[in-house]
Amino acid sequence: MIIDFVPLWTLILGAAVFFYVLLDGFDLGVGILYAFAPDRAARNLIMNSIAPVWDGNETWLVLGSVGLLAAFPLAFAIIIPAIYFPILVMLLALVFRGVAFEFHFRDAAHVTFWDHAFSIGSLVATFAQGIVLGAFIQGFAVEGRAFVGSSFDCFTPFSIFTGFALIFGYGLLGAGWLILKTEGELQITSRRQGRWCFIAVLIAIAVASLWTPFMDADISQRWFSWPNIAYLTPIPIITLAIAVFEWRSLNNRSEIAPFIGAIGLFLMSYLGIAISLFPMIVPHHFTLWQAASSPDTQAFLIVGTMFLLPVILMYSAWSYWVFRGKVRADIGYH
Tell me: the pLDDT tens digits for 266-308? Predict the structure, then answer.
């Protein structure tokens, strides 16, 4: 009897992508908002708020990319050449951002340069991820089992829109994190920035929800045919309820609610994309099962993953638990 591991690998990769977007998303958002910090003391607090966790957050990127290569090699072989340029830009920006983070604390003579480098690296990495997302939703030029387009096909009006939308989305996550971790004027500033990012995110969700079905008849059929429209109506209703919750939390004294609300908006958007494209992993061309590696390969890989995944989860949870509470100026990164 052959066991079908594709659903399990789909859950693992889906979780890895979501955790990366959530965890690295908020610290990239903090980096974007860092450019608007009012003074040196505020910048140091912002840096210290993510210092214990920022590098561990990128573990999920490694897990997701390696898992895609191993479990769905055909999808990897098509998707990566199609988005090679934004992926390259993203990785270089993440490296540049990491270097800036370290040198911010160790090169006081050029701290202003490293401040700008940290913010620019965060902004560029986020925009590149948005380009990847938009290109993935639109789909790729495929003939047979190979990508036949150019590395610049990923730059379209829709992908550029998703690039800018993700900047505001990560900004909302970053603002939620800073509201949770800081106090006083910096927290007030973060709430104000969060409100502006929230408005932009709400507009982006509305535009994407209208734009995406017009790009592909199958997506339109998925959402608007009967009885699908009845089954899926709760998705926009729940999203709207979370949006109301988020706006109220940004305007009251709650400290954890803005971050939770931002997570909720990302989760509903992620679910919407999954509903639109499932079961495709190479949109409009190959399903998860068509792109999967052999059952024996997936079975072999799942053994190691089942040991590794709990370790990553426990390490991440322990890190956030140890460094819970408000960030302080007298305790920081060294």
Answer: 999 999 999 999 999 998 889 999 999 988 888 888 888 888 8
CB count within 10 Å of CB 86 equals 26
Q: What is the pLDDT of residue 196?
A: 96
**CA atoms of 178 and 183, how far apart (whole Å):** 9
pTM: 0.93
Beta strands in the chain (DSSP E): 142-143, 146-147, 280-282, 286-287
Positions in the chain short of pLDDT 70:
1-2, 329-334
DSSP annotation string for 129-171: HHHHHHHHHH---EETTEE-S-TTTT--HHHHHHHHHHHHHHH
Number of DSSP helices (H) and strands (E) in the chain, helices first: 15, 4
Query: Distances in Å between the alpha carbon of 280 and those of 129, 224, 283, 291?
Result: 20, 19, 5, 9
- The Cα–Cα gap between 120 and 130 comes to 15
CA distance linking residue 325 with residue 319, whole number of Å? 12
Q: Please tell me the predicted confidence (pLDDT) of residue 288.
A: 93
C-alpha 210/C-alpha 21 separation (Å) is 23
> What pLDDT does 240 receive?
95
pLDDT for 228 equals: 84
φ/ψ region of 284 (left if φ > 0, alpha if ψ in -120 to 50, else beta) reads: left
- Distances in Å between the Cα of 214 and the Cα atoms of 142, 209, 218, 223, 311 are 21, 9, 10, 11, 42
Beta bridge partners of 331: 328
How far apart are the C-alpha atoms of 102 and 245, rounded to whole Å?
A: 37
Look at residues 87, 96, 85, 89 and name the one whose alpha carbon lies nearest to residue 31. Answer: 96
Structure tokens at 187: 């927290």
- DSSP-derived 3-state class of residue 99: helix
